[in-house]
Amino acid sequence: MRTADWLVLCGTLAFMVLYGLRRARGSNTVRQYLLAGKTMPWPVMALSIMATQASAVTFISTTGQSYVDGMRFVQFYFGLPLAMVILAVTAVPIFHRANAYTAYEYLEQRFDGRTRALVSLIFLLQRGLALGITIYAPAVVLTVILGWPDRITTLVMGAVALAFTTLGGVKAVAWTHVQQMMVMTLGLLAALIAAVMLLPDHVSFLDAVTLAGAAGKLNAVTLHADWNDRYNIWSGLIGGMFLALAYFGTDQSQVQRYLTGKSVAQSRISLLFNGVAKVPMQFFILFIGAMVFVFYIYTKPPILFEQTELKRIQSSSALQDEYAAVAARYDRAFELRREAAGRILEARQNGDAGLRRQALELYRRAQADLDDARRRTGVLVEKAGGPKSINDTNYIFLTFVTRHLPAGLVGLVLAVIFGATMSAISSEMNSLATVSMVDIYKRHVRKDASDHHYLNASRAATVLWGCYAVVTAQFAKHQGSLVETVNLLGSFFYGSMLGAFVLAFFFPRVGGRGAFYGVLAGEAAVAGCYLFGVKVAFLWYNAIGCLVVVAVGLLIARFERASSRRTA
Amino acid sequence: MNPEGVPAEDAARQNEERPPVGGSWGRLYAAVLAWLALLILLFHLFSRRFAP
C-alpha cells in the first residue's frame, strides 16, 4: 500500500462514518434509535437495503466465484425481483399496520408468544453466525495488505463497526449506506476499467470478452434442470425467490430497513428499486471477476493466491524439489494457455472455425494442467502442515487489486470493500440488538421500564453481539467461498422462518400451535436433508423448509378443527 | 389477494396511496417483472454469443 492509497482509504472511510453520525443526531429515544422515528424517504431506504446485502463478501468472494466458476452465480438472484413484488404486495402493508419494531412482534399479534420467541431465536442464531463471516471477510483484506494475523484483523474490524453502530443507531446506519453505495459504484467501475486497461495493447475489450467466453466464464444463464446443480435458471428463479422472500420478508436486518419508512408507499418503492437494481449489479461484479480471469491469462497468477499457505511450502526444505517440479509445470501450462488464447483470437479475426476448435482444445489442456499444478501445490501445503484442502477463491480479487492497480485506485477499491463491510455489519448488529431487546428482553425479562432504560439496553445488546461476532469470525477461516457459505447458512433457517409468515399472511385458520410445530418440523426437514445427504442444491432448502411448515401447520389446524367439532 | 391481518378497507386505502413514481402499483409491479424477463433474455443471448 502506497501513501496515496492510505490517504484515499482513510479519507473515504472517515467521511462516511462522520457523515452518518452527523445525520444520526437526535437518536435519543428507542423509536429513533431502532426505527429512525419512521421518517426515512424511499431513496435512503432503497440504498440501505442494497448496502445491507453488499458486504465485503460480495466483492471479494463474488469476483473470485466468477474467476473459478464463471458468471452462472448471477442466476442465484433471478428470484429476487419476484420476491420484491410479492413482499411489496403482502408483507409491507401488514408490518406497517402492526406498527412493530420487529417482524417477529407481528407473529405474536397473529399467533402467540412462543411462536414469536421461537422464530426470534432462530433469527438470532442464524444472523449471529452469519455476522462472524461478514466480519471475517474484510479481515482477510487486512491480512493480505498488512500481513497481520486474521485474529487481530477481525478484532479491529469488529471494534470499528461496533463503535459506529452503538453510537448512531439505525439512522446513522441508513445515511452511511447512501455514501457507501455511491463509493461502491465508483470503485467497481474503476476496477473494471483498470482490469481492461491493464490487458496487453493488442487485446481489445471485445477480445477480452471473447476469451472469457471461450474459457466458459460467461455462462450467465444455464437452462438445464438439475436438482443437484447449485446455479441454474430454475434453482435461481424458484429457490432464489424463496431465499429472497425469507431474507427480505423475515430477516430483521432487512425488515428493519423498510420499517423506517414514512409510509407503505415509501417502503414498497424501496423494495422494488432493489428488485430492479440488484440483478444488473451482481452481473457487473461477476463480469469484473471474468475480466480479472482474462487479465491473468496474460499476467502469470501466483500458483496459490493465499500467500500465507504458500510460505509454508517455501519454508520447508524437505518439499523444495517437489515444489520446484510443480512450479515448473505450472509455468509451462501458463505459457501454453497464453499461446492458446492468442490462437483463439487469431481464429476469431480470420473466421477460421477449424483453428478455433484446435485452439480451444489446446486451451482446455493447458487449463487442466494449471488446475492440476494448483491441486498438487495444495497437497504440498497439507504435507507442510497446512489445511487439508485449499480454497483461495476469496484471495483472487484482492491479489489483483493490491498487486496490479495504480496508486490511489487500490485505496478506493479497498474503501469499497471496507465500506461495504461496515454497512452490512452495522445493519446486522443493529437488527440483532433490536430483536434481543424487543423480542426477548422487553417481552420476557423486563416488561415495564423507562424508554431510557430500553435505549441503554439496545446499546448494550449491540456491544454484546459485536463481541460474539468477533469470536465466531475465528471459525470462518477455511470455509471456502464465503459468499456460498453465508447463503448456505441462511438456507438452513430461512425456509422455516418464511413458512411461519406464509401461514400468518395467507392461512387465517392456522393458529399458534400449528405455526409453532410447523416451524419445528420445517427445521427438522432441512436438517434431515442435510444430515442424510439428500441430493438437492442448498437453495432448495428454502422451499423445502417453507413447504413443510405450511403443510404441518395446515394439518394441525385441520386436526384442531376436527377435534373441536367432536367436542361440540 | 387480501392477506390475513389487513382489513379490506385498510388494504384499499394503502393501495390507493399512489406510488411516488410510475402511476399505479399494478403498472410498477408489471414493470419490475418485465425488467427481470428482459434481463434474463439478454443474459441468455450474451451467454450463447460467447459460449466456447
Describe the structure.
The complex is a heterodimer of chains A (568) and B (52). Chain A is mainly alpha-helical. Helices cover 79% and strands 0% of the residues of chain A. Chain A is built from 22 helices and no strands. In chain A, helix 5 (79-89) packs parallel to helix 11 and helix 9 (150-197) crosses helix 19 (451-473). Chain A is globular, with a radius of gyration of 25 Å. By secondary structure, chain B is mainly α. Chain B is 65% helix and 0% strand. The interface between A and B is large, with 51 and 30 residues.
What are the key terms here?
heterodimer, A: mainly alpha, 22 helices, B: 52 residues, mainly alpha, 2 helices, 65% helix
Strand content of chain B: under 5%
Specify the oligomeric state. heterodimer
* Tally of helical runs of chain B: 2
* Shape call of chain B: rod-shaped
Order of helices and strands of chain B: HH
Mean pLDDT of chain A: 85
Termini separation of chain B comes to: 46 Å
Question: Could you give a short description of this structure?
Answer:
The complex is a heterodimer of chains A (568) and B (52). With 568 residues, chain A is mainly α.
